[in-house]
Amino acid sequence: MTYMLNGKMGHKDSVGNEGIIEDGGLQWMNAGKGIIHEEMPMQTKGQMRGFQLWVNLPASEKMSAPGYADIPSKDVPEVSIGSSSMARVLAGNLNGQEGAVSTQAVKPQFFDIHLHADDTIDVPTSSHHNGFVYVYEGHVDIAGKTLRKGQLGVLDFADALTLQSNENTKLIIVSGEPINEPVVQYGPFVMNTEAEIKQALHDYQNGTLA
Known about the structure:
mainly beta, four-stranded antiparallel β-sheet, 47% strand
């Protein structure tokens, strides 16, 4: 998943998808049984920043057909939270609002939280998830600790997350259901066994990926 805060990301792949992700937009790609994908970053007014997250698929879906969604900023839902803060719901469900990405594999949640100074918000969580929070502007007080710009905190989802700051702060919250399966990784290939990795390399070298 690629989420652009500022700048653009041109991309195309081996099954014919092509486009440009612009400020506030995102792309969700399911590599599935195989897809060759390339990207070209482009600045906007000298700026280029965003997030690219890789979500592992369970073994039952690793050989699924490749999938693709290019979602412009205007189609990313935004919800009010707290007294004056806002959240962009990229994936999952926040206070009844479904996110822009509809995939159900590991039921991911991806929220871009814009926390207003001196506001306190509660973000509902799932006790079945693993996840983290990453601060990209300002700082946030959470569970008795302070996370500052550029810091990431791994979360224990026993309760809802209570977030507070005395300055305007921006952060992402990302979580998903643990797969609890073996992982074997080689370069861009992620499978469950060495034999599957060797097969993936063979398919790539012989041009039989999608």
